[in-house]
Amino acid sequence: MGESLLLEPSLAQTLAVSATKTSKLSLSTSTQRSLAAWIKDNIRKKECCFYVDGDSKGICKCGYQRIHHVDDSIKPENYLGETWDRHRHVHEVPTDAYGDIWFGGLGQKIGKYARVSADTSPDLLYQLLTEQWKLPPPNLFISVTGGAKNFYMKPHLTALFRRGLIKVAQTTGAWIITGGTHAGVMKHVGQAVREYVLSSGSMEGQIVAIGVATWGAIHNRRPLVHLEGRFPAHYSLDMQSQGHLSCLDNNHSHFLLVDDGTHGCYGVEIELRSRLERLISQQPLGNRESGVRIPVVCVVLNGGPGTLSTIYGAMLNRTPCVILEGSGRLADVVAHVAGLPVTKVTLSVIHQLMKRFFGPEYDSFTELKIIEWTKKIQDIIRMPQLLTVFRMSEDNHGDVDVAILQALLKANRSSESVGMERWERQLELAVAWNRVDIAKTDIFTEDSQWKSSDLHQAMFSALLGHKPQFVRLLLENGVCLREFLGDQTTLCDLYTQLPTSCFFLRRLAKRIQTEKSRRSQTLSSRGAAGRTISLTHVSDEIRHLLGSFTQPLYPLPGLHSTRYPKEPKEDVAVTVSIKLCQTASGEETFRDPGGDLFLWAILQNQKELAEIAWEQSRDCTSAALAASKILKKLAEEGAEEEDEAEEMRELAKHYERHAIGVFNECHCCDEERAQRLLIRISSSWGQTTCLRLALEADDKSFVAHSGVQALLTQIWCGELAADNPLWRVLLCMLFFPLIYTGFLGFSFLLLFSVVLMIDFQTTPSWREGLLYVWLISLVCEEVRQLFHDPDGFGFRKKADMYINDMWNILDFLSILLFIIGLAFRLTTRLFYAGKVILCIDFIIFCLRLMAIFIISKTLGPKIIIVRRMMLDMFFFMFLLSIWVVAYGVAKQGILIHNEDRLDWIVRGVIYEPYLIIFGNMPSNIDNALFDIKACSVNGTESQKPKCPILNEDKMPAFPEWLTIILLCVYLLFANILLLNLLIAIFNYTFQEVQDNTDTIWKFQRYELIKEYHSRPAAPPPLILLSHIFLFIRRIVLQRPPNSYRSWTKSHFQDKASSVSRKPAFKLVCTITELLQREEATGSVALVKRLTRLEEQVSQSARALQWIMDTLKAQGLHSKEEAPQLGERSESEPNEPHRQEKTEREKTFYHVNARRLDYPDSTVPRFPVLEEKVPWEVDFILYNPPVLNGDIISNVCRNPGGRTGMKGRGALTCLGPNLILDPVLTRWRDSERSALEFLAVWDQEDGLWTLPGRKHYILVNTSAGILVIAEVSCCTCVLQVHEGYVDDVRNTDDAWVETTVLNIHLDRRSLLMADINRMAENTVGCVELVRWTEVSSRTRMCSYQRDALRRVAELHQRTF
User: Where does the Ion transport domain lie (predicted)?
Assistant: First the structure.
């Protein structure tokens, strides 16, 4: 079956969940020791090892005072005569500051901290956060940056920011990372966390706010230092005396204090923080590998030049940024130019904005700095997919959390993923964040077309994350449960990843462990790796919960196939035959995927998920009743967790009401078919019926439904008219007493009483003989009931069921006493004892007679009340016995000295105190009533009690006042307290049963009807003839039993079978599915037609535009303005974007060649603004650095304009550097459904590239030109493009020029086979090679995208 999967993480963890919960306090000390040991081994700090006086005496170049240096650093022999250098004279040693930090006061004041070296590996820091500090991996990483000093924000914007930040962190499980100090934007984040903690009043869902600060710039850090760690360290905010240093913010939860060995220097943490953010962004999202990584977003408030560098670096790393307009300074500068084309973001505009928003600070800025900042802002504007501006005035960004999440989705749309893969990644993010609102507005739009398979990963994540709203949304948008659970590995994986707190998982773990221990006794040990969960284990455990009367829900592999019905094809007839149950011939069983998912949710006690899955279940009545049975069983067996058990019982009642509601609707529509539904065998729930599930679950309300009772009445009365032959009817008309079983019961008791009182002779009379025959017939009937097993339970289960019935216990006891009494009666010595036993047996037979009156609506509830009160009586007798024994022993000890006669001890300790309750006051506790003649002084007379202790006057010597007080106290508690308690208990029981009289009576009525329906027709003692007949038929002739034994199968047998063959509701479902599929097919066809029409219109528009351009070139002009062909109207929302795109095309300058960071070099380019690119434009301040070029010729000048770098750079020569870019294409199939090209994934740039300048296709040759020569004879080689390439390696004196060739390959050629083998070998490698469709959605550099567009035009394909 393939459903066996490894259990994660370990069964041992599952079995130890409860023990772990109760031992957290005792593990705190050991956890601290473990943390300290780990930090000592892995985390380092930095300290100066060479003291050199700086500008101030007594202070080293590193900024620390002389007293803060170790002795070896004062005059080290290794460094004498050297100039102090931060890289050489600072070394790493084990850190001495870590542990818990406590700020005091209200709110989230206790956090964790560690002093780390600036060169610490980010992997170690992530391990510290997740494994040592026990932070769950984030679903989102929010980096908040901006102004490091206090700044003013409008109150409304401040409230929006704090509320939105906390909401996005709370709903998505995000980490927030800041600078960690109590100033600027970090203080705003801290205040947001503080407000959340104070408003929620709970620390369970605390916000993870990580502060990454510079250790040397932290004020009052001495209390944090201790070699063994501080648990906790007391840190106080001292804002008054901090000077140029900064205090830690008291509302952050975790602190990484970055140390480079210096004191008083800011910005040390920037590099390490950037590396940590990059590492976290590469971690997988969630607990299942889906290719989605943890998303990172940068939120910017206020800020200065350093913030601009942070934004620029983040966007180069493809991290989206959210700018809050109105927060001041740099944020407002970027926000004001965000909607403009790059050509309009000029140096003068930035000058004006800087002067406006920076105020007096603007005067300190140099022209070169503003040029550099303008270039960075232009580059930022050039990446609109990564830039989001939050404006309070816009209605579409009503909250900051929505803006943050939409920014991530917008960035994801422009990632390397294309098509449905891109949408799937966005959906995974929305599921991880649990933001249904974002999914509805931004993902499930009219533009997106989803197949069920596209949503399976998101559905799996939503189920494991217990996100019912997402599950419902995915079902509404096309998830087909039949396809989702079609591979039973998925269902097994769902069970494997149940939460460790799940009671059902712990039961599974125990079952697997038991099974493994059994196998280890007979098989050799296979190690711990054999621990698995399979659907067979799940089926066995569910069968235990449902009851052994059911069949396994997931049978063993190889016995027969169990699968989901396939989707019917369009040409399949509507009358689809769906098999309902597994037959003995090995036919396959069709499962209900909705029922399987519902069962998985019920076993976790997940009400909302179960509700959604129940709605998808086909057999919803059986599913609800089965859930009621399972939940009650789980609540019973998991009683140690009372709260969870109570929730399970409430959920069981909830689904019982669901079952009643569904059945009531069916009963109102068609009573006869509703009755058939009760006894229809459900293949999805263990080959059982709704009625049987309701009875086993003790669902009294369901059984009491009028439709169920109508079925029972029809079974009780209908047999007389339908099944009995005519001679039986006539016989009962002549001998009417045979009909009334109650009359026969009275006749038996009358005969029994006559024999006991009048006719009990030494030699049995004919009356006594008749009595014994009657009793023997009853014995035979009880034996038949014990061994009668139509459901195949087995003798052990049948015996348990027999004993659990109180009436059967009375039957067994009466028969046992009858056998003992008869044996004694037949002997001379024990003749009278036998009569006594039979008299007691008569009492039991009288009590047993009450069972027949349960069928009565009047007497039945009263018998139930008596039965309940008997149970209450046992509880009362237990309490009463305590008082009786307590008083009796005390009284006996005070009055009587050393009584050794057991009968008189029992009389004095138990019998006399018991009679006192009923008003029989004792006379031996009062001296006035003492009579020495009524007692025996020494206890020698057996007929008299022993006298109390006497004094010299022959009067009782006991303290009379004490015995009277004891009697009064005893009467007070026994007669008043306990008897009134008994009355109250009886009253409560009566009221409870009386309120539910009808329900309880109807439920009990079923058992009686079933019992009498399964009995032979003849009453006792004539039933003995039926027993003889059955014995001959079964044992002698070995024939199968008659049909009356399976009463639920016999009634409506023909009708039920017809229902099984043609279930109307399944036919309706099939028709509905076919109609939906036809509608979907029509919709897809319509979309395809519209797409083709749009392509034709677009081609016509381009053709007309070409005609117009040609006519204009020839000097022909029209009097009227030409209409814009193929474009949107002015009212359409995409018009600004189109105009911006057109503007960029008209004023295109190279972009990559002006990147500030030159590849493989630490020398940055001189910033070249957009308007300063052409050589014709004067740029007086232009002074680019020279890289790899001593002699620069003015003859070789970049045709694309200025680049900000002179020399050869990383290229091979000055002037043009020629490369070859072959575009290898093929048709996807023989029908030419799509044109594909060979693409290579560039991991560094995150782009698909052509196999040209960086990658070479070597097929039996070593140069690309030889490939062309080799294939030119058998393939089509066309030159597509030749010219300048906007390459990051270009300089003012050296640049790249390319020749793009299209090599179209035949799918059947040997060359194609070699290329396909090479592409297969790159799967899983960094440089992935694969055939990709020629499409504008493929993420490539600009010139290669243009080349692909031309290739598509050559092959007459739409790009």
Answer: 742-997
